[in-house]
Design brief:
Helices cover about 80% and strands about 5% of the residues. It is elongated, with a radius of gyration of 24 Å. The protein is mainly α and about 210 residues long. The chain is built from 4 helices and 2 strands; from the N terminus they run E-H-H-E-H-H.
Length: about 210
């Protein structure tokens, strides 16, 4: 029986004399993950307050158009919050990958070795694409909710139309959430691949130094 050992050269890599640092998505992740968290923290309590206002409107006997409009506004704001929190998680994953990329390059520079950097794997590309698709889907659905609310309030859309829109937009929102969660899964799979690559590269550096 023969055994084979995986080396860093078995991966798709870039070879350089210095660490390559953060790539563009990782730079975005470092800058934007915290603002997205803040946005989600603001959106969810706002949606809760709107829900309470709607409940009071129902118990107070407000008109049906007002109640329907509040329902759409509440849902729209809530899913702006979901968009923000999913985006924050995605940017946090990009930030983690950036730290691995930058730190790995710095360690290789420190020991005087050529710097081998893992090229962006297919899982990372799917992660970025899925994140963009999920974000756009949820944002579009949220905006449409707000537009429907304005139309109901102005009387240009009937209650039946508002109900139909709510049902259709629920399907769109679920699709957006599913796409986002699948994208995050690919992001986590990318972290696993990076860890595997760096473990192999560290082993090579130790063998060379010894």
């Amino acid at each position: 029986m023969t055994s084979s050992t995986t080396t860093s050269s078995d991966f798709a890599i870039d070879v350089s004399t210095k660490g390559l640092g953060y790539n563009r998505p990782q730079q975005m992740g470092r800058k934007l993950w915290a603002p997205m968290w803040v946005m989600s923290i603001m959106a969810f309590p706002t949606a809760l307050i709107l829900g309470i206002v709607r409940a009071n409107a129902i118990s107070g006997g407000e008109s049906e158009p007002t109640i329907a409009a509040l329902g759409h506004v509440t849902t729209g704001v809530m899913f702006i919050g979901f968009t923000a929190v999913f985006t924050a998680v995605s940017f946090a994953i990009a930030r983690i990958l950036g730290e691995f990329r930058k730190g790995g390059g710095e360690v290789q520079e420190l020991v005087g070795s050529e710097v081998r950097t893992l090229k962006m794997p297919p899982t990372a590309k799917i992660f970025i694409l899925g994140m963009a698709m999920g974000m756009m889907t949820l944002l579009i659905a949220s905006i449409i909710h707000l537009v429907v609310a304005a139309q109901v309030s102005s009387g240009s859309l009937s209650l039946a139309g508002a109900e139909t829109a709510a049902i259709n937009l629920e399907a769109v929102r679920r699709l957006g959430v599913a796409v986002y969660l699948v994208a995050i899964t690919f992001g986590l799979a990318t972290i696993v691949k990076v860890l595997r690559f760096q473990a192999i590269r560290i082993r090579e550096l130790v063998q060379v130094s010894s």
